[in-house]
Amino acid sequence: MKINILLIWSLLLLAMGEVWAQPESGPISSGHIQAAGDIRITTEGPIELLMSRYYYMNAENPNMKVYRIQMANSTNRQVVYEAKSKFLQNFRDYRADVDFQQPYYKLRTGYFRERHEAYKMLKEIKENFPSAYLVHEEVEVSKLIQQQGW
After folding, report:
1. What is the CATH code of the structural domain delimited by 63-148?
2. Which whole-number Å values give the CA distances from 67 to 91, 119, 139, 145, in the listed order?
3. How far apart are the first and last CA of the chain?
4. What are phi and psi of 140, to 5 degrees?
5. Residues sharing a CB contact under 8 Å with residue 26, sequence separation 6 or more, in sequence order
6. By the 8 A CB rule, do 34 and 27 touch?
7. What pLDDT shows up at residue 31?
8. DSSP E strands: which ranges in 103-149?
9. Which of 126, 145, 142 is nearest to 134 (CA)?
10. What pLDDT sits at residue 14?
11. Domain spans of the chain?
12. Are 128 and 90 a contacting pair, CB within 8 Å?
């Protein structure tokens, strides 16, 4: 979601500002133009203010809200690890994480940016884990990059 917002803001900056290039003279050969120069983007004050606030807020919070699917939740560690084995047998292409939040062990999978993406997988998982449900949590972006290759 943050990437999409950044892209929209970038396009808005280009649309609202003036963009020009000051090319140095370069050779023209076989229908191609080669030029070197500076590109300058100027924007109006309110857009710069919004962008600086956006960057400041994201720098302060290195987390991202994602949807995950929780299949098991128990104070008994063995029960959750058995559920993890069952999950990995049925869904070999997916990763399953056991998180400990005292006093509970929680079996979760997936890091979905959008609810509808998570819901599609939830329907598949419910065939083997009828009590599975979606959870919305904040995860460190560095953890997402490390585990998901984002």
Report:
1. 3.30.70.1070
2. 18, 9, 10, 16
3. 12
4. -65, 135
5. 33, 34, 35, 36
6. yes
7. 56
8. 104-112, 133-140
9. 126
10. 55
11. 1-18+39-61, 63-148
12. yes
Residues of the chain with confidence (pLDDT) below 50: 1-2, 18-26, 28-29, 150
Q: What is the pTM of this model?
A: 0.59
Cα angle at 7 between 1 and 57, to 5 degrees? Answer: 60
Burial zone of 149 (CB within 10 Å; 0-12 exposed, 13-18 middle, 19+ buried): exposed
Quote the pLDDT of residue 29.
46
> CA nearest 143: which of 68, 53, 92?
68
Torsion of CA 46, 48, 53, 55, to 10 degrees: 160
The contacts of residue 93 (CB under 8 Å, 6+ apart) are none
